Amino acid sequence: MNELPQQLVNGLLLGSMYGLVAIGYTMVYGIVQLINFAHGEIFMTGAFGAFTVYLYVLPDGTSMAIALPLMLVGAVLVAVTVAVGAERFAYRPLRTAPRLAPLITAIGLSLALQQAVWAWYPNAKSARTFPQIEGGPFEIGSVTIQTGDIFLFVAAPISMAILAYFVMKTRTGRGMQATAQDPDTAKLMGINTDRIIVVAFALGAAFAAVGGLAYGLKYGQIDFRMGFILGLKAFTAAVLGGIGNIYGAMIGGVVLGLAETMATAYIADVPGMSQLGGQSWANVWAFVLLILVLLFRPQGLLGERVADRA
Amino acid sequence: MRQRSLIAITAALAAGALTLTACGSRDEDGGGSDNGGGGTTVVIGVDAPLTGDLSALGLGIKNSVDLAAKTANKEKTVDGITFKVEALDDQAQPSSGQQNATKLVADKDVLGVVGPLNSSVAESMQKVFDDAKLVEVSPANTNPALTQGTKWNGGEKARPYKSYFRTATTDAIQGPFAAQYVYNDAKKKSVYVIDDKKTYGAGLAATFTDEFKKLGGKIVGTEHIDPDTKDFSAVATKVKNSGADVVYYGGEYPQAGPLSKQIKAAGAKIPLVGGDGIYSADFIKLAGASGTGDLATSVGAPVEDLPSAKEFVANYKAGGYKEAYEAYGGYSYDSAWAIIEAVKKVVEDNDGKLPDDARAKVTEAMQNVSFDGVTGKVSFDEYGDATNKQLTVYSVEGADWKAVKSGTYTG
Description:
The complex is a heterodimer. Helices cover 70% and strands 3% of the residues of chain A. Chain A is mainly alpha-helical.
């Protein structure tokens, strides 16, 4: 039986998740040149936000059709609050400091958020079971799609379309583009750059929250460390796609997800490579791909010319 | 250029952060033992994952040791000695385990350590304890090399560390026992073997594979997963297309649960079989409804069914511990009790006082310890392995593990 279509779908789903989180890295980087390492944890708090709504706000036995939109709202609310709070209290005071200071702050914030959830969220010391959408898997030809994956399949493209519209068509979006190109000139043109930066953090957090909810639905469990590895992968996706470019983030995510899945599925079948295949080597192959891409296109797949901003 | 160097520094920091989050032990109060007995205080160290994915098992270990210490203090098992528990968190990381080992060695009151949970962590701790002649009794390590040397499979058994003992059975027995059950009792002839490449998981998968092949079964595929991820969809698809009628997984429940779930979701309605590392209530939680029918082997006979364990179960309940004693509770209690027995012997041989070289003496005494514990007769062979080699197959039924068959592997 041909497993390629199924593996492509697996990779696409994993990649969409990376992409949703990668958008946050790339937007913040594009505007303030900060690599927000706490972004993986914002993704995590989003997932816990959705979980909290399900567990403590909604009455027991609410159907997922009603619960899902509310969980989405909860996820976005929590993640955006955390991200805006982080911007206001952790990053803004350091805006004029040398670049390493906010970077270290981001890493500290990442640890602090993890530990805060660990310490104070009820029973979050080990994984919590996330509510699932009822209904069996759907078979399309030789491809099986889980009910939990459908949310991701629908949400990722919609999120992307909304983001593209926002950045291209709205006043604030164009303000973001201007600030990314040249913050000082943008300020002179009457753009409130402080506000633009907050919007960038909030938007990135909102997409991470969508990703967090999708993660819970897909894997059926969330825990306080879920954002750490995924955040690093999403950061990798952002670099792969060209950090600073929002389309690059999504494409980088999909490429990374597909690369990992394909490496797991097929490398071991290549003659002489059986030792280097399987999932435990998937990360290695994904990073080989990253290195190759950066060798030939140091700015990433869709990256902008970095030199003129340095 | 500045931009690129920033990314380089960032990457380096990210790598650093990866390792850093793994360190940093969080001291937890062992749960204050009763100050009965008076006189000298002897500390029993505990090293186990008290936070993170494996904390359910780790907290069960910590609580059971605490119960043993409290019981010994209440019954004045050793005259003039009060036992205290000092529990350290290794987060299932060998590096943290070694730091904890160093810390326990530095505390002169520590005369024995119960732990760790993971064989890979044990590897990093053994030498530290052995250099200090501090006895270590693990309730859960099952990798044969820990007691019998790396060449145990080639017939050259050699005990690497005299201070290391364990109350759990080894994978040299557990893997083949599972293979026999799967092949002879469950009548599954083609298996897909998956492991997590850790000391425990890979070792268990290897002993299972050997025996399964010997019995005439077919290995239709092997896969090594990355324990840091929760996405096993690519692996699940491969399992489905391999046509295997059972999956054997060498590893622990944080990965086994989602793996089982995703394999079934991919359309392969076949049971997942694992070792004591997946025998946890959390496995059932993580595997969800589709986990029914999954199997696990675990060390010893079911604690609930043993007459010797009734008292332990009752006392554990009465102790008011928040977490369940889990798979290793009985073994942890017995491990701690073995240390208590050894200390007792040393104290009695020395006119009721602790000798100056108490650590070395306790290690020596441990070799000859023998008593009726929670899990049956507790004593150690010349390698430091438990002489009790019972195993049990459990199956997931609804929300619980049900014992299916007890026995041992006799080659």
